[in-house]
Amino acid sequence: MQFHIHYSRYVSESLSGVLLLLTLLLSSCGVDGSHFKIEGHLLNINQSEFYVYAENGSVDGLDTIHVEGGRFAYEVPCKHPTILYLVFPNYSVVPIFAQPGKSVSIKGDASHLKEIEIKGTDDNELYTKFREQVSKTSPPEAKRAAEVFIGDHPESVVGLWLIKKYFISDALPDYQTALRLAKKMQSKQTDQADLSRMILQLNSMSHVGVGSVLPTFSAYDTKGRLVSSSDFSSGLAVICTWASWSYDSMDMLRTLKQLQRQSGGRLKVVSLSVDASRSDCDGALHADSISWSNVCDGKMFDSQPLRQLGMMGVPDNIIVKDNRIVARNLMGMQLHDKIMALLK
Questions:
Q1: What is the C-alpha separation between 190 and 196, in angstroms, rounded?
Q2: 62: phi then psi, degrees, rounded to nearest 5
Q3: What is the rounded CA–CA span in Å between residue 278 and residue 282?
Q4: Mean pLDDT of 91-108
Q5: Distance, CA of 312 to chain centre
Q6: How, if at all, do strands 267-273 and 236-242 pair?
Q7: Which of 45, 51, 48, 74 is closest to 64 using CA atoms?
Q8: DSSP of 5-17, one letter per residue?
Q9: Nearest CA to 159 among 145, 171, 138, 175?
Q10: Cα pseudo-dihedral 154, 160, 163, 164, rounded to 10
């Protein structure tokens, strides 16, 4: 009996040692072929939280990354090259280009997040160089640099972000150039689902540009009221996208609230939340005393009204007068001045 006990203990300890060794070996091999991993170390930050999301649903809603001692790690299932978006505590958003079986490291200073360095894959290192290249250029020069980048690297998923940033989510969207560049990329990325989806959306964008009639859409707001394109058949209105974790979009809502008050009721506003959580959405609106119709279906960027209206980012907005689109994606003083001019 004593031998049996000693033997059992020996086997148990041996198995524990083997399991520990296997764990160390697996850890040293890095991430497996169906996942993508982010590891980071930022100075001037101790404990905090970041958020991460993906427009294609590869991340379930809005996920949280915990920071301890300035270090963090995050792993996500990844079967195809895709874009993840990190939302930092100061609300700045940084794209991370994910690939199956790969990992990246993020280093920098939390007080200078625009200068963080991302290494580990060709796409992330290419984008880091691009950011450095355009950091001190004018918007037209940055747009030309983006077009050159896509021409030189049509195989890179970075082009998806550049098309969206410089040719779609712009005060003067250039859907024709965006479509031309996306098709150039498609010749090298034939199985890229996100790119195919973008091309489908861009093919229909000609119907949602400035001067076009507002597309037909309908949805129920968070209070159960029906919101539809027929609500904008006359008068001035703004349809906008926002999220509780996007500082720029919250700032836009506050601007619109002020403008609506100044208009004496002549300005209608409807907002489309890309929050994954209804409670986060309602909490943010309540905190800012915003009472206009707001749609939040929890589908984030896969929401049907966003697709119907050709709205592909946050923040984004469409200004409508008498059922016709008169401006798109204006921010700050541009948004304020345009609406004040239309109210005269």
A1: 8
A2: -110, 110
A3: 6
A4: 93
A5: 9
A6: parallel
A7: 51
A8: HHHHHHHHHHHHH
A9: 145
A10: 180
Which residue is it, tokens 């979009």? 249
Instruction: Express the helix, strand and coil content of the chain in percent, nearest 5 each.
Output: 45, 25, 30
Q: If DSSP codes are grouped into helix, strand and coil, which group holds residue 224? A: coil
* Burial class of residue 341 in the structure, from the number of CB atoms within 10 Å of its CB (0-12 exposed, 13-18 middle, 19+ buried): exposed
Residue with tokens 């609506």: 260
- CB burial readout 69-90, b (16+ within 10 A) else e: eeebebebebeebbbbbbbbee
Reading the block at residue 335, the tokens are 């948004």
Characterise 233 by phi-psi region: left (phi > 0), alpha (psi -120 to 50), beta (else). alpha
Q: Whose structure tokens read 């100061």? A: 90
Q: What is the pTM of this model?
A: 0.77
262 versus 29: the higher-pLDDT residue is: 262
Is residue 32 pLDDT above 90, yes or no?
no
106 pLDDT higher than 70? yes
Residue 113 contacts residue 92 (beta carbons within 8 Å) = yes
- pLDDT over 90 (residue 37): yes
What angle do helix axes 175-186 and 193-204 make, rounded to 10 degrees?
150
Residue with the larger pLDDT of the pair 206 and 99 = 99
Residue given tokens 């009221």 in the structure block: 225
CA distance from start to end of the chain:
97
| Averaged confidence pLDDT in the chain | 87
Phi and psi (nearest 5°) for 272?
-120, 110
What type of residue is 127? Y
Amino acid at 263: S
Separation of alpha carbons 341 and 344, rounded Å? 5
Cα(124)–Cα(83) distance, integer angstroms: 10
Taking only the tens place, the pLDDT of each residue in 62-89 is 899 999 999 999 999 998 899 999 998 8
